[in-house]
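Why predict the complex rather than its parts? Because the way molecules touch one another can change local conformation, and only a joint prediction can capture that. The input here totals 933 residues.
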Amino acid sequence: MMDFLEEPIPGVGTYDDFNTIDWVREKSRDRDRHREITNKSKESTWALIHSVSDAFSGWLLMLLIGLLSGSLAGLIDISAHWMTDLKEGICTEGFWFNHEHCCWNSDHVTFEDRDKCPEWNSWSQLIISTDEGAFAYIVNYFMYVLWALLFAFLAVSLVKVFAPYACGSGIPEIKTILSGFIIRGYLGKWTLIIKTITLVLAVSSGLSLGKEGPLVHVACCCGNILCHCFNKYRKNEAKRREVLSAAAAAGVSVAFGAPIGGVLFSLEEVSYYFPLKTLWRSFFAALVAAFTLRSINPFGNSRLVLFYVEFHTPWHLFELVPFILLGIFGGLWGALFIRTNIAWCRKRKTTQLGKYPVVEVLVVTAITAILAFPNEYTRMSTSELISELFNDCGLLDSSKLCDYENRFNTSKGGELPDRPAGVGVYSAMWQLALTLILKIVITIFTFGMKIPSGLFIPSMAVGAIAGRLLGVGMEQLAYYHHDWAIFNSWCSQGADCITPGLYAMVGAAACLGGVTRMTVSLVVIMFELTGGLEYIVPLMAAAMTSKWVADALGREGIYDAHIRLNGYPFLEAKEEFAHKTLAMDVMKPRRNDPLLTVLTQDSMTVEDVETIISETTYSGFPVVVSRESQRLVGFVLRRDLIISIENARKKQDGVVSTSIIYFTEHSPPMPPYTPPTLKLRNILDLSPFTVTDLTPMEIVVDIFRKLGLRQCLVTHNGRLLGIITKKDVLKHIAQMANQDPDSILFN
Amino acid sequence: MKLLCLVAVVGCLLLPPAQANKVRESSEDIRCKCICPPYRNISGHIYNQNVSQKDCNCLHVVEPMPVPGHDVEAYCLLCECKYEERSTTTIKVIIVIYLSVVGALLLYMAFLMLVDPLIRKPDAYTEQLHNEEENEDARAAVAATASLGGPRANTVLERVEGAQQRWKLQVQEQRKTVFDRHKMLS
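Output of the joint prediction:
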């Protein structure tokens, strides 16, 4: 009789790729580990120090994640800023300066033309030494398209050759990972490097995409990689997901300069289980990341985001009507975008279009660049466009959008009255309308391509343009018809009544809310961007309206829609299961299937078990007392069985194919001259969850959600009847919602 | 692994302080920018000067003053002066780091796609025997306690080769999942 050594075999307790983790097991393992450390800490000083450092390791890990994410975000910001301007020209003082920094110290900038300085040479100036004339325009056009194509080609080749997981936004996959799914390599170091590098290239190529979603992926990669330094997080998948939630918060925090918004985004959109302990730690990580980014100072002026807004002009009650209109527009656009984008992505998945990813990226980039160059509002980078749209026009601005006629004599203390629009504003409106149409159409084809692409900035751009158009319209209406009833009480002549910049902000929030269906986190991010509580009511009104309109037209946000498109096994935590089915309608085996494959507790040989393992593909087997009684003992996982049996064959003497495997505490009585028995009790889960066959599926789905189970056993009158796995639950939900249950992949 | 972690941790902790403490030697990294709008018959103008924060106001920066003495205060009320600073060293370092990483990746990509298949071709037949031999060598070298330089270097090379092979297989798997079978990331 061979007694099994009690030390854990390496590999037991880990998971295969594309499998779900067992939350209950991971959490109980962490509690055991913590209990052991606490008990040992009373023995010696060294053990005490070990227990203190163990408690402290979580905070140290958060600090490191914040530092690394902030540094990478700074690198991405500065490089993207430089490379975007590279399409237009180069700085002769030092090639590493972008346009703004090149002209920083120049004495030749004028009030009207703040961009021209002799140190910055456009490509036509370098090639044909002049900047005027049709030929120079063509040369600039050609170089713009060429650079855009070069950047896009580099991006897609790097993704294809080094890290195919680096494409897309990353948020749907991170949502799935945080709900308990394992995708090996998705948060690895190559994915991190390639995602950082190609994100800069993709943003610089002028495509209609943003970098906020990919920044969340980058931050989660940092979190995953740094987890390997700490034993507590490396070995426990559940604790690691707590760290990833905090890392996601840090990612959004550096993208928007909004630490609180980042934590709420992680809570609302990305995480599945969010214990309160994680809240404080996420906030710490987000704060450290924001602080690191600030100290790198990528935009000068110690600002974190390019479009930080500084005005505080009040808004009026009648303006709620246009704000709600913007909310409706945002909801409509959101629903339309999700539907068309999913249809296009489905086409990419199923038809020939998916076989030519590189060509697709190049074609879309070419179309975007060719259509974008003529219009100055599409030529500039989207962040700059949003920044200009959010800007409130004052006397100090000289852009086309701020070309108002100054027909007043005095200005009281910086507050400008409403002014009639000049020629510049009208032409800017036309150009902005064209920009709106281009952005709406091209983003549908851009999001989901095989390069890192985010969604936040294009949606905010669409909303900001719509908002600014409406705002300027309202402003001119108030100026020319100041005697109307609604304007009379608030907008007397000479008062600063309407702020188009505010409309742009509200529009941006509405469109972003319509696409992603964010609620609290959206409002908090927007008000952290503006730094004032004055605009919370308009933002909330627009966000709520847009969410209601969008929900009326389509149930899911963009990330949930992509999860469903890809068939990830993600159990939606927010939806109610409203059907009256019972557990026995869902469990396997079904009526005509062969009986449930079980192992007995002490009567199977090694050979029997190996046959069962090779003949079936189940990821786990229930263990019963005997085949006649079918009384449940526990549940054992396939991977653990394979590893333990292999290990026993190699390391233990005498274990052969006819050795009996037993899961009980003591070996069963054996006749003499039989080979030694093999004890596998330590891989058996002695507390599997069971429900009776008449349990309503509502309760079963709730149990799966709240406890994070992988499988649940079904009993009838105390005897084992069948098993329900998470995939079965997902297929059942899909069936009940009239979707194709076979679309749940990874079977 | 642990050593790598320690290096990463120390690097992370030293990085931002190093960035923040870069001495602002060049005065071209600070400026005071005053924007003055059009006033009466004077057109708008932008004034730039490399002064410190306490000197950043209209009187110090706007030179030559376009309005006569009694109008200066009214003119200066319209002007807006902002103090800005930047770090050219940070920008230069980051751009150089980024370009070198991109260059290194491009070289590695060229190596993998062009040079690697040519190197591997002659070994196609003897590769298996070669591998077996090297594996035995590796095991023998590990078992031996003497610190021989030769077999030890062989083991390291073999380990790097093995890691690279494993990585290539991983990337191939990922490529199949994403690009061919469209199982993930649509």
